[in-house]
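Hey, resending since the last one bounced:
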Amino acid sequence: MKSVAVEEGLTPVKQYLEQQGCQVVDMRSDRQGQSGVCAVVITGADKNLMGIQTVVNNVPVISAEGLSPEDVYQRVKQFVQ
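The structure tokens again:
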């Protein structure tokens, strides 16, 4: 499975995705490495995310606001298929 970039502060989501076999990368660690991600998961607290839309092109951004880790995983799976 491709990598999923997860925003800092979403530890339960990150752990659940890893348990399901996803390769999870930190959004802050290496922006250039994000070109291979299939989705980006954000907290939803800042939907603009400092202009992240210009950095990650053609990659779905999933807001985890109000979602369980299981819900986030289901949305990630939709974009992988």
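The chain has one domain: 3-80.

Sorry for the duplicate.
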